């Protein structure tokens, strides 16, 4: 049985051809663990779970890696400003960054369990992989794809000819895609930080490096952990559409730039979850968390079932407080087949998942 998926890189539906026959090695960009996740975040992980269960249904062994971002920036511009969300949360809650990260990683794993998402084979933490990140940065410097300025290291995107291929952000689109507030150390506004020099008052989450004390940019962790756990060529990389640029564009530039060959066989991205017509996000104040679904007396699997109606690249029906709570109320019975008793789940999930991302 040939499984075909929509590959974001080629913008076409292609057969999945694993590097090792009978085995799928897949990487999913995981959470930044400084606050609870909402079901909009979890929808990306549902997509990965549908894919994984489908691969397994058709006889593949799956090695699934989901990273835990515990050095706490969500966006590269926050890195550029030296903001660390784990440190900020720790200060606000009177805890250490490690305590914050461990607490929210545990909460995330529990939310996944409640949605029937199979645990990843590995959940590598960024803070435990700074050495491999430094190694990749050194390779990029050796290949003249990066430069050092004042204790920081930047990727020179103009030196990587394929930069922009995943997102389509090239030329004017790239200029518009990068933020307007430009770090004066960058040679080009589109360049991005691989390593940042630690600010003098930064006490936590600082590492020694060949360029002095500092901390990694966000994107480099996924290049380091994906290739470390899955090898220099692996089959599927998933994430939300908001990861396409800059995060995955930069991951390709880093991984392929360091290794000199393609690394990911297929890029699969899930659409945003809409709530009242807009993307579910903390900033939009329209989020819903798993425990809030339960507090309403509803089964979290009702959300899983509703989300499956629009899985893959389609935008699923909005589970908002105003409109979708009634919809979820009608779903628990329908959600029963989604309960993770493996045989039933796999049979039920097979056909819709295979079709979904196309
Ligand atoms: Zn990532």
Task: Give an overview in words.
By secondary structure, this protein is α/β, with parallel strands linked by helices. It has two domains: 4-270, Rossmann fold; 281-339, no CATH class. 38% of the residues lie in helices and 15% in strands. It has 13 helices and twelve strands. The strands form four sheets. Strands 4-3-9-10 form a four-stranded parallel sheet. A hairpin with a 4-residue loop joins strand 1 and strand 2 (12-15). The longest helix is centred in the N-terminal third of the chain and has 19 residues, at 39-57. The relative contact order is 0.17. The model is unreliable at 332-358 (pLDDT under 50). Zinc ion binds at residues 29, 222, 247. Residues 29, 222, 247 line the site of zinc ion.
Summarize the structure.
With about 350 residues, this protein is of the alpha/beta class. It has 13 helices and twelve strands.
In CATH, the homologous superfamily of the largest domain goes by the name HUPs
Q: Low-confidence runs (pLDDT<50, min 5 residues)?
A: 332-358
The assigned CATH architecture of the largest domain is 3-Layer(aba) Sandwich
Query: Which H/E pattern describes the elements?
Result: EEEHEHHHHEEHEEHEHEEEHHHHH
Q: Which molecules other than protein and nucleic acid are bound?
A: zinc ion
- Broad structural category: alpha/beta
Count every helix, treating DSSP H or I runs of 4 or more residues as helices. 13
- CATH domain fold name of the largest domain: Rossmann fold
Could you give the topology of this structure?
Blueprint (H helix, E strand, L loop, with lengths): L3 E4 L4 E4 L7 E6 L10 H19 L3 E6 L9 H5 L4 H9 L3 H18 L15 H13 L3 E4 L2 E4 L16 H6 L14 E6 L16 E3 L2 H12 L3 E7 L3 H16 L4 E7 L3 E2 L2 E2 L10 H6 L4 H9 L15 H6 L2 H4 L6 H14 L3
Parallel strand pairs: 3-4, 3-9, 9-10
Antiparallel strand pairs: 1-2, 5-6, 6-7, 7-8, 11-12
Helix pairs in contact: 1-10, 1-13, 3-4, 5-7, 5-8, 7-8
């Amino acid at each position: 049985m040939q499984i075909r998926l929509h590959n974001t890189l080629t913008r076409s539906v292609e057969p999945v051809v694993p590097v090792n026959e009978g085995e799928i090695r897949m990487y999913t960009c995981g959470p930044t663990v400084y606050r609870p996740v909402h079901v909009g975040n979890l929808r990306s992980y549902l997509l990965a779970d549908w894919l994984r269960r489908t691969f397994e249904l058709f006889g593949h062994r799956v090695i699934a890696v989901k990273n835990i971002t515990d050095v706490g920036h969500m966006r590269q511009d926050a890195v550029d400003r030296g903001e660390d969300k784990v440190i900020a949360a720790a200060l606000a809650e009177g805890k250490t960054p490690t305590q914050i990260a461990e607490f929210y990683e545990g909460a995330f794993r529990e939310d996944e369990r409640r949605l029937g998402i199979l645990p990843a084979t590995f959940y590598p933490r960024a803070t435990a992989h700074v050495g491999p990140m430094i190694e990749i940065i050194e390779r990029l410097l050796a290949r003249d794809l990066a430069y050092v300025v004042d204790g920081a290291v930047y990727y020179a995107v103009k030196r990587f000819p394929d930069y922009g291929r995943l997102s389509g952000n090239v030329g004017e689109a790239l200029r518009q895609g990068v933020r307007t507030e430009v770090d004066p150390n960058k040679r080009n506004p589109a360049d991005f930080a691989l390593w940042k020099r630690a600010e003098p008052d930064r006490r936590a989450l600082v590492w020694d490096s060949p360029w002095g004390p500092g901390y990694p940019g966000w994107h480099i962790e996924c290049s380091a952990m994906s290739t470390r756990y899955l090898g220099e060529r692996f089959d599927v990389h998933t994430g939300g559409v908001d990861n396409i640029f800059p995060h995955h564009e930069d991951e390709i530039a880093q991984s392929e730039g360091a290794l000199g060959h393609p690394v990911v066989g297929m890029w699969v991205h899930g659409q945003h979850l809409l709530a009242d017509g807009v993307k579910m996000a903390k900033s939009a104040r329209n989020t819903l968390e798993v425990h809030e679904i339960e507090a309403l007396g509803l089964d979290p699997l009702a959300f899983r079932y509703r989300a499956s109606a629009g899985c893959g690249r389609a935008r699923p029906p909005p589970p908002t407080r105003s409109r979708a709570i009634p919809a979820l109320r009608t779903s628990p019975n329908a959600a029963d087949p989604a309960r993770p008793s493996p045989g039933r789940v796999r049979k039920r999930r097979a056909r819709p998942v295979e079709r979904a991302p196309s």
